[in-house]
């Protein structure tokens, strides 16, 4: 997800190529399911973004959400600005890890006024709360599913997101860098890496944690690109007891019990840039 504040009118020829074949082909029904499953981002993350934007001289005129999907984030941040704009390529659901980043930065330089901000942020991996019984075994079920079972169906963008945008191309790291977003003004924020409790009191995740039932876990996983690509590659198994998600949930229930809930949080990454 990317948001740019204090934008200029977009140039007529502005386009940004995205590389995920799954979300490019989303139907309205699948987009609605995505919106239900994913929800929005925690208020704590929005607070950091808005605070850093204001503290670095940003104005509250316009916010532009590039690759807005169903608009979950934009609805949350819009009240802080006079005008809110969301753009997406039709039914496409695009996030920063699918962008052609050098092209993105060239267009961002045209869109964002000097003093404006670009915030690129994402939800990363799931983590069990340390209070979870048998936490090592439970976390291993999730990690094996993500990093082994789904590995053949994970694209580079999935791995970028999973690794907290550590290797996302930055504006000064290309053969034709974008000097409008200098490295000296760049900030990288990560929370809950490897399951660390980065909440304000040190007893919960940054952004909080939730109790997830197997049904909710299945709904969340079904909205991810790797799961959807696995199901497209295994149409006979999809939706049956041999579905990748169903197999993982049986392994999970073998540890936490049938119908047992798991307390979980998300990792978050925020890359914050200023327009010179």
Automatic annotation (TrEMBL):
<dbReference type="InterPro" id="IPR029063">
    <property type="entry name" value="SAM-dependent_MTases_sf"/>
</dbReference>
<feature type="region of interest" description="Disordered">
    <location>
        <begin position="1"/>
        <end position="21"/>
    </location>
</feature>
<dbReference type="GO" id="GO:0008168">
    <property type="term" value="F:methyltransferase activity"/>
</dbReference>
<dbReference type="InterPro" id="IPR041698">
    <property type="entry name" value="Methyltransf_25"/>
</dbReference>
<feature type="domain" description="Methyltransferase">
    <location>
        <begin position="63"/>
        <end position="95"/>
    </location>
</feature>
<keyword id="KW-0489">Methyltransferase</keyword>
<dbReference type="Pfam" id="PF13649">
    <property type="entry name" value="Methyltransf_25"/>
</dbReference>
<protein>
    <submittedName>
        <fullName>Putative methyltransferase domain-containing protein</fullName>
    </submittedName>
</protein>
<keyword id="KW-0808">Transferase</keyword>
<dbReference type="InterPro" id="IPR051052">
    <property type="entry name" value="Diverse_substrate_MTase"/>
</dbReference>
<dbReference type="GO" id="GO:0032259">
    <property type="term" value="P:methylation"/>
</dbReference>
């Amino acid at each position: 997800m990317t948001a740019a504040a204090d934008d200029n009118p977009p140039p007529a020829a502005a386009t940004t190529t995205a590389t995920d074949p799954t979300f490019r082909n989303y139907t309205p029904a699948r987009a609605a399911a995505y919106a239900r499953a994913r929800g929005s981002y925690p208020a704590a993350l929005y607070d950091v973004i808005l605070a850093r934007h204001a503290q670095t001289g940003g104005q509250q005129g316009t916010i532009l959400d590039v690759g807005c999907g169903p608009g979950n984030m934009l609805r949350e941040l819009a009240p802080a600005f006079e005008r809110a704009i969301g753009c997406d390529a039709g039914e496409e659901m695009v996030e920063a890890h699918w962008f052609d980043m050098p092209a993105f930065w060239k267009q961002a330089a045209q869109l964002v006024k000097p003093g404006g901000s670009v915030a690129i942020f994402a939800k990363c991996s799931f983590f069990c709360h340390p209070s979870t019984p048998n936490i090592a075994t439970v976390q291993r079920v999730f990690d094996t599913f993500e990093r082994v079972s789904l590995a053949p169906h994970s694209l580079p963008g999935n791995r970028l997101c999973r690794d907290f945008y550590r290797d996302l191309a930055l504006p000064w790291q290309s053969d034709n860098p974008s000097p409008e977003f200098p490295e000296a003004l760049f900030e990288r924020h990560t929370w809950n890496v490897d399951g660390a409790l980065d909440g304000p009191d040190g007893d919960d995740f940054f952004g909080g944690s939730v109790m997830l039932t197997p049904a909710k876990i299945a709904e969340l996983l079904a909205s991810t690109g790797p799961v959807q690509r696995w199901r497209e590659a295994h149409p006979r198994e999809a939706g049956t007891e041999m579905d990748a998600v169903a197999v993982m949930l049986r392994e999970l229930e073998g540890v936490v019990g049938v119908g047992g809930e798991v307390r979980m949080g998300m990792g978050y990454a925020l890359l914050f840039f200023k327009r010179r």
